[in-house]
């Protein structure tokens, strides 16, 4: 199994957010999680990425034959996990080039691969940026600083396509995007898709799933998965909302 | 030993002790020491200070054997080595370097911008044993680098320098303080900018932990002149940076900036003070600090706008990153405005490094330590990228890397 989440319960500030959540993802699969606001989708994404604010009450997570809780934040990324944040943080004064270059090289180091030199990295960054319709000027700015909502989301996908993760978690990457931007972003995801990597796509609306075809759709309510199935579930939600699952 | 006895014992070694006016002034200063209750609450020169160490000191001074001024005519640049606060005399058509004179002392003693109860400035006047005067002649554009060297352990240097930029002159001045001995330097720079002159003043401070540096400056700007001061404090020893500027004629500018990098048990006290005394002047006071371990710092900034100083623009900012729970940074901005048409602002943000930013960078695969370092660098990115002197920028980068290598 590629990612296996077993009976996961998580709380923050005395509030239980995830309640006995189970989820299995195999290599090469695309999974979508849909659920109403506040049901715990971002919490799940953050716990997977290793954010330390949460208290893990119960459960186990296996990722590529590792106990995920044995890996710190950067080790998870170096093992091939990537989270495209719902709200990417602005980091004034930090430019994407040195930051992402250092990030990709620490990943390669862990994988015993050769590091990328400055020049090749700059080329890679430029070509991926142009694929995503990100202009060169934006690469000169500080990470996410003063970016519009849509620009931030593209920037997340740019980072994803450079780091080429084994498991990409997209947390509401579609929200705040107009149709053109959504098309560019989903094209980026589809280009990256191979039989060896997996996607966990968190979304509030069904729209995104018109562009990225999921193999499985899960409905999350009150911190656990209440129904799983194929893309027909997304259509149900589109029609009737989440009420009948609650 | 009390101040009085200490002074009497070392008189022969102290500048201008034969001058009647100066004697009178010094007697007044001794009186201040004897009568002051050393009220820590209301005296910014006393914050975080073990005063006893500074007042009850062993006076020791050595006259230097060798000092030098090297002139590179091709580049209009001069390299000065000042030893134990003294410098050789030098003269050409662009600059003139001489000893300071009684009249420079008297001129300064009349100044009332620096508080009368700044004990370090008073000690400097009392025990003065070194200093020099540099005049940049009219309409010349030159560069000067001064290495301030202290030769021996246990020296107490009390130094007053005068820097005068004559009308239309432009000076880029780099001063280095990199001493590794157990000494104390108490330096007062009196800087005068005449009409249309410009001074870019860099101070690089990188002393070892047993070396104390107390540096005070007073600059005054006449019409259309600009004084820019950038302090980089990488010292492992105590440093006090107190810098005062007076904008005395219209359309002049003072820009007082500083960055300090502290660790271990080190302390640094900082103060900037700008007095707007004429219309249409601008000032900027920005200090940033990075504090690790149990380091402590204070920063007082102050904009004073006189009632005639209409159309003043005054800006103050203080920022700090605390890398440890045991580090502390106290900052206090102050504005005193007596004119009505002014634009003044101040801001202060001090706190630990942004955890969300650390998480973001780590979630891409960067180690915690690498993420911390990149965020520290970004904190001062604006200041570092605006250094327009390549040599300076390299020096600062190297010292930054050294500081970062100790961050765990
Ligand atoms: N740092 C936090 N402190 C307190 N409550 C939080 C915190 N983060 C999230 N929550 C709460 O946890 C619940 C789930 O939030 P989240 O995972 O962001 O939901 P979703 O992404 O599904 O909209 C919400 O009720 C939210 O208010
Ligand atoms: Mg969310």
Can you describe this structure?
The complex is a heterodimer of chains A (246) and B (408). In chain A, 35% of the residues lie in helices and 29% in strands. Chain A has a single domain, classed as P-loop containing nucleotide triphosphate hydrolases (Rossmann fold, 3-Layer(aba) Sandwich), CATH 3.40.50.300. The longest helix of chain A has 15 residues, at 96-110. Chain A is α/β, with parallel strands linked by helices and 246 residues long. Chain B has 2 domains: 3-356, no CATH class; 357-408, no CATH class. Chain B contains 9 helices and 20 strands. Chain B has a 10-stranded mixed β-sheet, with helices on one face. Chain B has a 10-stranded mixed β-sheet with strand order 3-4-5-7-9-11-13-15-17-19, covered by helices on one side. The longest helix of chain B has 16 residues, at 20-35. At the A-B interface, helix 2, strand 7, helix 3 and strand 8 of A face helix 6 and helix 7 of B. The complex binds adenosine-5'-diphosphate and magnesium ion. The site of magnesium ion has 5 residues of chain A, from helix 1.
Overall geometric form of chain B = globular
Beta-strand percent range of chain A: 25-35%
Residue runs with pLDDT of under 50 for 5 or more positions of chain A:
none
What's the end-to-end separation of chain B, in Å?
A: 43 Å
């Amino acid at each position: 199994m590629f990612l296996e989440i077993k009976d996961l319960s998580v709380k923050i500030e005395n509030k239980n957010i995830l309640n006995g959540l189970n989820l299995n993802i195999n290599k090469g699969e695309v999974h979508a999680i849909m659920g109403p606001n506040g049901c715990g989708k971002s919490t799940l994404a953050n716990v997977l990425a290793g954010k330390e604010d949460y208290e893990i009450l119960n459960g186990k997570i296996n990722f590529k034959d590792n106990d995920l809780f044995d890996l710190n934040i950067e080790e998870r990324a170096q093992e091939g996990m990537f989270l495209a944040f719902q709200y990417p943080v602005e980091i004034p004064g930090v430019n994407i080039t040195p930051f992402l270059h250092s990030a990709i090289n620490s990943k390669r180091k862990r994988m015993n691969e050769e590091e990328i030199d400055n020049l090749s990295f700059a080329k890679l960054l430029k070509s991926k940026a142009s694929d995503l319709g990100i202009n060169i000027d934006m690469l000169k700015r500080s990470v996410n600083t003063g970016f519009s909502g849509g620009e931030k989301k593209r920037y997340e996908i740019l980072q994803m396509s450079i780091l080429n993760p084994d498991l990409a978690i997209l947390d509401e990457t579609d929200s705040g995007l107009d149709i053109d931007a959504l098309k560019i972003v989903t094209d980026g995801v589809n280009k990256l898709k191979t039989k060896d990597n997996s996607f966990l796509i968190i979304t509030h609306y069904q729209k995104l799933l018109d562009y990225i075809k999921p193999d499985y759709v899960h409905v999350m309510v009150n911190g656990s998965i209440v129904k799983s199935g194929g893309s027909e579930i997304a259509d149900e939600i589109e029609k009737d909302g989440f009420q009948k699952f609650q | 030993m009390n101040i009085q006895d200490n002074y009497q014992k070392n008189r022969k070694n102290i500048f201008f002790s034969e001058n009647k006016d100066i004697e009178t002034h010094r007697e007044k200063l001794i009186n201040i020491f004897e009568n002051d209750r050393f009220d820590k609450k209301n005296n910014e020169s006393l914050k975080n200070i073990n005063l006893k160490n500074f007042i009850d000191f062993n006076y020791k001074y050595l006259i230097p054997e060798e000092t030098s001024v090297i002139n590179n005519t091709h580049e209009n640049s001069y390299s000065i080595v000042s030893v134990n606060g003294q410098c050789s005399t030098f003269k050409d058509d662009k600059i003139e370097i001489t000893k300071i004179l009684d009249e420079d002392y008297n001129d300064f003693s009349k100044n009332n911008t620096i508080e009368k109860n700044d004990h370090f400035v008073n000690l400097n006047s009392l025990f003065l044993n070194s200093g020099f005067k540099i005049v940049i002649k009219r309409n010349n554009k030159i560069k000067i680098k001064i290495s301030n060297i202290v030769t021996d352990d246990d020296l107490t240097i009390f130094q007053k320098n005068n820097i005068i930029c004559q009308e239309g002159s432009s000076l880029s001045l780099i001063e280095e303080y990199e001493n590794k001995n157990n000494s104390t330097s108490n330096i007062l720079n009196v800087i005068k900018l005449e009409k249309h002159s410009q001074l870019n003043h860099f101070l690089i401070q990188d002393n070892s932990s047993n070396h104390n540096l107390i540096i005070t400056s007073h600059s005054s700007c006449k019409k259309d002149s600009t004084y820019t001061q950038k302090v980089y404090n990488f010292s492992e020893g105590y440093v006090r940076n107190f810098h005062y500027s007076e904008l005395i004629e219209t359309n002049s500018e003072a820009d007082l900036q500083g960055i300090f990098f502290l660790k271990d048990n080190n302390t640094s006290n900082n103060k900037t003070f700008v007095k707007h005394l004429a219309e249409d002047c601008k000032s900027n006071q920005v200090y940033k600090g990075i504090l690790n371990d149990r380091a402590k710092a204070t920063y007082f900034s102050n904009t004073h706008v006189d009632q005639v100083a209409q159309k003043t623009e005054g800006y103050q900012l203080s920022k700090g990153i605390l890398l440890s729970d045991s580090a502390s940074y106290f900052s206090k901005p102050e504005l005193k405005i007596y004119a009505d048409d002014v634009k003044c602002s101040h801001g202060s943000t001090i706190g630990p490094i942004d955890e969300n930013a650390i998480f973001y960078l780590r979630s891409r695969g960067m180690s915690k330590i690498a993420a911390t370092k990149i965020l520290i660098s970004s904190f001062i990115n604006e200041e570092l990228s605006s250094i327009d002197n390549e040599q300076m920028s390299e020096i600062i980068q190297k010292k930054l890397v050294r500081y970062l290598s100790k961050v765990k």
